[in-house]
């Protein structure tokens, strides 16, 4: 090969997987089509109109009237860092949970933003107890309280959100909610529940490729951001600068990920067409059939019904099998992605997503059939036929 020849690679042919893991989920064909439409400039009047539409559609999905509602360029962690990095000022006290992987990430980001981190404790696999949150608020008097609405690492939905936000507001703390795995799939009401700042991801229940991630801030939260004494440590995610692009002015800050914004618009249009409440109901119904199937074959859910998270089903790994081997076998034999546990639950649970376009009857029949087959072939004590029968009954 001459020096100037480029590396030789084949045409891109990723395997055709069924995505039932913790995200990304299967993308709706309309969203994929939207991504392949021609680019316009990020300041083109046509794009400015698209930006307005995306903002309006995001408000609908978040259930908010917040003017400050935007897609942040980057993955869910970018929206998370934008939320925390702007709202937390050096010297602030930030109260975060210990009950999962993403609470830990929240703590790490808050520390990097110059905050002093204090914790409200709960075991992995359980939600926060409102009394424990009230005690922690009284003890630490934090400036900011962050929690994870849908903990992807444990399959736990945080119930009693209005109780938590009311307690935080009694102490004049702003509330940041991680809604990455709840937006568009699980009941979420930013305004009614008194959440000051919410961030999310597009690749879970919105079934959109990662790359532009939802964020919303109340006027009060934005007031704090705009009156900071010290500038935000990240230039890229500084909302006082991004205001120039997403606010009235529409002037250049950075080049928006145009195709991702197209994709998000289409994904959010699908949400609006279905109706947000009907969509929450669909996730609960379809994930309920998945849950019936795994329980029917003899497996156990990790979370009790009170805080079961339909978009992420944590299923106990049965005796005699190794979770990683089961996931690898599902990928190999069925082109099916599910995930194993993380952190404190490593080796103990499977994480089976039921998100957005993946939350369909055919997908849950498939995952219950494939999981039962693989577990039985590996010697686990399961009854695959009873599992499939239970899923079919639940779908009727
Ligand atoms: C609850 C939660 N928060 C934050 C993130 C970070 O999102 P991303 O991986 O898109 O950066 C994830 C991703 O899985 C998540 O599940």
UniProtKB/TrEMBL annotation:
<feature type="region of interest" description="Disordered">
    <location>
        <begin position="1"/>
        <end position="28"/>
    </location>
</feature>
<feature type="compositionally biased region" description="Polar residues">
    <location>
        <begin position="1"/>
        <end position="11"/>
    </location>
</feature>
<feature type="domain" description="Aminotransferase class V">
    <location>
        <begin position="41"/>
        <end position="341"/>
    </location>
</feature>
<dbReference type="Pfam" id="PF00266">
    <property type="entry name" value="Aminotran_5"/>
</dbReference>
<dbReference type="InterPro" id="IPR024169">
    <property type="entry name" value="SP_NH2Trfase/AEP_transaminase"/>
</dbReference>
<protein>
    <submittedName>
        <fullName>Pyridoxal-phosphate-dependent aminotransferase family protein</fullName>
    </submittedName>
</protein>
<dbReference type="GO" id="GO:0008483">
    <property type="term" value="F:transaminase activity"/>
</dbReference>
<dbReference type="InterPro" id="IPR015421">
    <property type="entry name" value="PyrdxlP-dep_Trfase_major"/>
</dbReference>
<dbReference type="InterPro" id="IPR000192">
    <property type="entry name" value="Aminotrans_V_dom"/>
</dbReference>
<dbReference type="InterPro" id="IPR015424">
    <property type="entry name" value="PyrdxlP-dep_Trfase"/>
</dbReference>
<keyword id="KW-0808">Transferase</keyword>
<keyword id="KW-0032">Aminotransferase</keyword>
<dbReference type="InterPro" id="IPR015422">
    <property type="entry name" value="PyrdxlP-dep_Trfase_small"/>
</dbReference>
<keyword id="KW-0663">Pyridoxal phosphate</keyword>
<comment type="similarity">
    <text>Belongs to the class-V pyridoxal-phosphate-dependent aminotransferase family.</text>
</comment>
């Amino acid at each position: 090969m001459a020096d100037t020849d480029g590396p030789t690679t084949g045409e891109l042919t990723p395997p055709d997987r069924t995505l039932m893991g913790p995200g990304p989920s299967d993308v709706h064909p309309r969203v994929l089509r939207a991504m392949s439409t021609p680019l316009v400039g990020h300041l083109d009047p046509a794009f400015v109109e698209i930006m307005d539409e995306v903002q309006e559609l995001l408000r609908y999905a978040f259930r908010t009237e917040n003017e400050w509602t935007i897609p942040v360029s980057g993955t869910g962690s970018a929206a998370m860092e934008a939320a925390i990095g702007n709202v937390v000022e050096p010297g602030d006290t930030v109260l975060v949970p210990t009950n999962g992987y993403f609470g830990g990430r929240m703590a790490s980001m808050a520390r990097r933003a110059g905050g002093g981190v204090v914790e409200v404790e709960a075991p992995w696999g359980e939600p926060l107890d409102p009394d424990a949150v009230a005690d922690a608020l009284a003890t630490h008097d934090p400036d900011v309280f962050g929690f994870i609405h849908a903990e992807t690492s444990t399959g736990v939905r945080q119930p009693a959100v209005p109780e938590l936000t009311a307690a935080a507001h009694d102490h004049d703390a702003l509330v940041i909610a991680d809604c990455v795995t709840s937006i568009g799939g699980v009941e979420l009401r930013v305004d009614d529940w008194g959440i000051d700042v919410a961030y999310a991801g597009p690749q879970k229940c919105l079934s959109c490729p990662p790359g532009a991630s939802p964020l919303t801030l109340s006027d009060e939260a934005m007031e704090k951001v705009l009156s900071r004494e010290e500038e935000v440590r990240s230039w890229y995610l500084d909302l006082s600068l991004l205001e120039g692009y997403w606010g009235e002015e529409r002037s250049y800050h950075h080049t928006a990920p145009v195709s991702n914004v197209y994709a998000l618009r289409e994904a959010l249009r699908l949400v609006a067409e279905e109706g947000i409440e009907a969509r929450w109901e669909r996730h609960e119904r379809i994930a309920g059939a998945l849950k019936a199937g795994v329980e029917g074959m003899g497996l156990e859910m990790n979370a009790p019904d009170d805080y079961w998270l339909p978009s992420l089903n944590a299923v106990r790994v049965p005796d005699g099998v190794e979770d990683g081997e089961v996931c690898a076998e599902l990928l190999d034999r069925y082109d099916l992605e599910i995930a194993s546990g993380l952190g404190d639950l490593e080796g103990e649970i499977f994480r089976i997503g039921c998100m957005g376009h993946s939350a369909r009857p055919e997908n849950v029949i498939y995952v219950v059939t494939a999981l039962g087959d693989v577990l039985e072939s590996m010697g686990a004590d399961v009854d695959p036929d009873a599992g499939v029968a239970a899923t079919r009954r639940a779908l009727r």
